[in-house]
Specification:
By secondary structure, the protein is an alpha+beta fold. It contains 27 helices and 27 strands. Strands 3, 4, 5, 6, 7, 8, 9, 10 and 11 form a 9-stranded antiparallel β-sheet that branches. The longest helix is centred in the N-terminal third of the chain and has 71 residues. Keywords: Hydrolase, Membrane, Transmembrane, Transmembrane helix.
Length: 1022
């Protein structure tokens, strides 16, 4: 369970990290808030009014635009009506007149006069004509502005008012064409002799359609044959004849009318057909400048002009908006627009009028009003901000001072009292409350710092008692903590001298004062009621003179003459871990200070102490658990072998003693080495775990006392083979002497005895070599090989009764037939066992392991083992033994040690390193080995040399061990100065008295060996 704690930082000044520290960066002062509030209010109101006014005016402008467009459409309709109405009347009148007076058609002169009068009376009519059933045609055209308005590629005489186009076709005769230019009085001015057009009215739509009906005909907009202008024709049949009278009306007058309607330089007014042909525009250049067709001879189309607004208008028209007011977006701006149908003539609705004006242009006046309103609002806003700033400054001055005091309190700065006062009652009350709070926080923070500074539960208890005693004016302050078995409240006193006494406990009194412990029984104790300390603990509430302080804030909870105050040590909702007892003697009239404020302070103080004590108890429990696990692992390693027992226990003793001596030494070599609590803890853990990797080392290697020993000693197999040779010699003798005379028998008997002596000598030699106590020279190696070459006969299958692993290794090496000849000693392929899991090169490189890895994991070859030069371990077995250091480093590196124990893997894994770099597993040198690693190395070597329980070597005496270590120091293998300190401090002698047999203590305590009479090499450091 995680216990909350007060986190303190002390970087020169005490600072408490506040939970609201990050949030304060986004806060603003009261002055700014008031000013911003007023400013935002004015801004929102002003903006709202301006926006409302703008939208209101905008809607009015839209309505006005719609009405304007309607008027423009009506005006255009009126213009068209003024154009088409008289023309229709002219056609009807002429058709009726010609029907009544046929001569009017046949007499060209009379017809000319009539047509001239009609053109003069109808200036919007381009031409008036008559077409007959035989193909004859007579047309009078009005020449208005300039000579080139005739539309012909010919020279028009000056003063021309009319031009006549005549086609006469008689029966059986060819067409006669005549093109004459007349003045205003119909005088002849000239003729176009080359006027031959091939024109036949009967091929034109106006004639064909009108000749079939007696009704007035309006043609679609089309191109006139002669002038190539765009316009429409109004025609009607004359009675029941084949003659048709008609007039041509061009669209030039339509564009002129649209130009008069235009009120915007950037706006658009067009008239168009359903298929997108442009009939008129307020911009004459779109119609060829004079309303004439472009050189292609076709009517322009809307799509030809690449105008986004025209394209958008026609798109909306195609989508169905054929009689509507619109809002469009085109060319990067908004437009007011309208599309309305336009009637050309009495029964014609095939054209539409579109008007579009940019919204910006339409609302330009409104925009000026809006800008003026915004300027006024900004001025009002500026004045409002100044007023709000003044008002907020006067209000927030006191709150700013209180905020500054709060910041000082958040930094735990309590050097000055709060003196802020205000005319505003709420702010003044806040200032007084903060003054009280500051004093309480100052007192509590000082206590919290003191509690946090203590590293043990005893120190926390002393601080708690001292502060509580001073705050309550108590004469006696005691602390009761729940025992580990939760059966007692055990008292703690500052002098740590607690006398246990069985004193009767009386309810509400102070009889429990002075008791060393109080039973935590749920029933009555010794026939009386439950002690108030137990009640306060179980209920988790403060008790004053036996009275429960509940409900909070009640007047009855404060007594002027209280003599016993019990405060539970309780954090949050957890169960109390103890009780704080404060009391005064009844004599003398003294009483406790138990006002509401002081009681709450004592409760908060007790809660803080509870957190601190529980944290320290948890830390101590975790450390105890960790320590027990370390010792458990060390005990398990020692228990693996009965011959290395207590090695993991004895090395820490030597290590800690030598480290203490080095820390206390004033020698220059150790001047910078100080063994503080954390460093001592780190070295302690490392020394206990220095051989933890041995849990992976096979026991038979740790215990291997002879060369041929694996899980058992194979010397017995060798001896059996010698027995076989012995019997073979006897059998050979008995076979040889059978039937021989006595003299020869004696010779063979002597040979048999010589063979027996030889076998005994060979086995004795092999057995002595198996011990491995002495170094082996080359002559001995050769003798072993010679002895091993002796042969014996095997009569049984050596692949029977063995494991699958052995069978796999012998698969290709078993005897094919029996009996088989075998050597006395040999290295067989099945003796070599490959690696089950090859060491990972990447992992070895990462940890800096430099020792070479043998080819096989094990080699049980008999000759290979018997010819070991020193000791009893092969290269494979020595690597396996030495690998325990690698495993120690790997295991400890995988442990998440705290910061103060980070060097445990390095210290524990370096006890086989040498100062000259010849050690293992990483080959570290003097520059890379700290003093802790050197201390560990000396302790490990000394314990290994003097250990009396190693089966693979004889235990060295104290003198022999120190001489060997002195030689190692002189050779630069271990730290000579540390070794000298080790000897001079008396650690070897003290250790010898505690752990060595009497026969091993061969030198007096005060004598240091001067020479090395042994010259022995250390071969095993297991």
């Amino acid at each position: 369970m995680r216990v909350p704690s007060l986190r303190l930082w002390l970087p020169g000044k005490l600072r408490l990290r506040q939970p609201w520290a990050r949030e304060s960066a986004s806060r603003r002062s009261l002055r700014v808030n008031i000013g911003v509030a007023f400013s935002l209010l004015i801004f929102v109101l002003g903006s709202g009014l301006i926006t409302f006014s703008h939208e209101r005016h905008r809607r009015i402008a839209l309505v006005t635009a719609s009405e304007l467009f309607e008027r423009s459409t009506a005006q255009l309709a009126a213009d068209i009506s003024s154009l088409y109405g008289p023309a229709e009347t002219l056609v009807n009148l002429t058709a009726t007149l010609a029907n009544e007076l046929p001569i009017l058609v046949t007499d060209r002169d009379l017809l000319l006069v009539h047509f001239a009068a009609a053109l003069d009376d109808h200036p919007n009519v381009e031409a008036v004509f008559v077409g007959e059933g035989d193909g004859s045609f007579f047309l009078l055209r009005s020449i208005k502005d300039s000579p080139d308005s005739s539309g012909l590629d010919t020279v028009v005489p000056a003063g021309t008012r009319y031009q006549v186009e005549s086609v006469e076709r008689g029966q059986g005769e060819g067409a006669q064409y005549e093109h004459v230019f007349l003045g205003k009085d119909l005088e002849w001015l000239g003729a176009n002799e080359a006027f031959i057009t091939g024109y036949d009215p009967r091929s034109r739509d106006w004639y064909r359609l009108a000749s079939r009906s007696s009704e007035l005909l309006h043609t679609d907009f089309h191109t006139f044959f002669t002038t190539r202008e765009t316009g429409t024709t109004i025609a009607r049949r004359i009675g029941e004849t084949k003659s048709v009278v008609g007039v041509d009306i061009t669209l030039e007058i339509l564009s002129a009318a649209l130009g008069k309607l235009s009120t915007s330089a950037t706006g658009e007014i067009i008239v168009f057909t359903e298929d997108g042909r442009l009939l008129g525009s307020d911009k004459p250049d779109r119609m060829g400048g004079t309303g004439k067709l472009r050189p292609s001879g076709s009517s322009p189309r809307i799509a030809d002009f690449d105008e986004p607004i025209l394209d958008e208008l026609f798109h909306r028209f195609v989508e169905g908006d054929r009689d509507a007011s619109l809002m469009l977006n085109a060319a990067g701006q908004s437009w007011f627009a309208s599309i309305r149908p336009v009637r050309f003539g009495s029964n014609r609705e095939s054209a539409f009028m579109a008007i579009a004006v940019p919204e910006k242009e339409m609302l330009s006046a409104l925009e000026r009003v809006r800008l003026q309103s915004a300027a006024f609002a900004l001025v009002a806003l500026a004045l409002s901000v100044l007023f709000a700033w003044y008002l907020s400054t006067s209000i927030s001055k006191s709150t700013a001072q209180l905020a500054a005091e709060t910041r000082e309190m958040s930094r735990l700065r309590f050097h000055s009292p709060i003196t802020v006062r205000s005319r505003i009652a709420e702010i003044d009350a806040l200032a007084r409350s903060m003054a009280v709070l500051k004093a309480a926080l100052q007192r509590f923070t000082r206590v919290a710092v003191s509690l946090s500074a203590e590293e043990g539960s005893d120190g926390v208890a002393r601080v708690l008692l001292a502060e509580a005693k001073a705050a309550s004016r108590a004469q006696v302050a005691r602390l009761f903590l729940v025992s580990d078995d939760e059966k007692w409240l055990v008292a703690f006193e500052p002098d740590d001298a607690i006398e246990e006494a069985d004193v009767d406990v009386r309810a509400g009194g102070s009889a429990s004062i002075g008791r060393a412990r109080i039973a935590l029984e749920s029933t009555d104790w010794q026939g009386v009621s439950v002690p108030p300390e137990v009640f306060a603990l179980n209920a988790g509430r403060t008790v004053i003179d036996g009275v429960d302080v509940e409900p909070r804030g009640a007047e009855s909870s404060v007594q002027a003459d209280a003599r016993l105050l019990l405060v539970p040590l309780k954090a949050d909702d957890e169960r109390a871990i103890g009780v704080l007892q404060l009391s005064v003697s009844p004599a003398g009239g003294a009483s406790l200070q138990v006002d509401e404020e002081n009681v709450r302070f004592l409760e908060l103080l007790a809660a803080s102490a509870a957190v601190a004590i529980r944290n320290r108890q948890l830390i101590e429990a975790q450390q105890a658990t960790f320590e027990s696990l370390i010792r458990l692992l060390a005990a398990a390693i020692d228990a693996k072998s009965p011959y290395t027992g207590r090695h993991c226990e004895r090395v820490p003793v030597l290590t800690e003693r030598l480290a203490s001596a080095a820390s206390a030494s004033e020698a220059p070599a150790f001047r910078n080495f100080h063994l503080d609590e954390h460093r001592a803890r780190e070295l302690h853990v490392a020394s206990w775990l220095h051989d933890c990797g041995k849990v992976t080392t096979p026991e038979h290697l740790v215990d291997k006392a002879t060369k041929l020993e694996t899980v058992y000693n194979r010397i017995h197999e060798i001896r059996t083979r010698f027995e076989v040779l012995w019997r073979d010699a006897e059998i050979d003798y008995l076979r040889a002497v059978d039937g021989l005379p006595g003299g020869e028998r004696e010779s063979l008997s002597a040979e048999l005895e010589r063979r027996r002596i030889e076998l005994r000598a060979d086995f004795s030699f092999i057995a002595s070599c198996n011990i491995g106590s002495e170094g082996m020279d080359e002559e001995s190696v050769e003798r072993i090989r010679a002895i091993g070459r002796q042969a014996w006969m095997r009569h049984f299958d050596n692949t029977l009764g063995i494991s699958q692993a052995e069978l796999k290794r012998m698969r290709n090496h078993g005897s094919a037939s029996l009996p088989a000849t075998e050597q006395l000693l040999c290295d067989r392929p099945e003796h070599r066992i490959e690696w089950h899991a090859q060491p990972d090169p990447a992992e070895r490189e990462r940890h800096g392991f430099t020792a070479p890895v043998p080819e096989n994991e094990y080699d049980h070859g008999e000759l290979h083992n018997l010819t070991i030069r020193y000791g009893t371990l092969t290269a494979e077995e020595r690597h396996k033994i030495n690998d325990h250091v690698n495993q120690t480093i790997l295991m400890l590196d995988s442990v998440s040690f705290p910061k103060n124990l980070k060097r445990v893997p390095a210290i524990a894994g370096s006890h086989h390193e040498k100062l000259d770099g010849s050690g293992y597993p990483r080959g570290l040198g003097a520059q890379e080995l700290g003093i802790e690693e050197r201390i560990m190395t000396i302790a490990d070597i000394f314990e290994a040399l003097t250990a009396p329980d190693r089966p693979y070597k004889r235990a060295k005496t104290l003198g022999e061990s120190l001489l060997i270590m002195r030689d190692m120091g002189e050779q630069g293998l271990i730290d000579a100065e540390l070794l000298e300190l080790f000897v001079e401090s008396g650690i070897p002698q003290e250790y010898a008295r505690e752990n060595l047999a009497a026969v091993q203590i061969d030198i007096p305590i005060s004598v240091r060996p001067a020479v090395n009479p042994i010259g022995e090499r250390i071969n095993d450091e297991r």
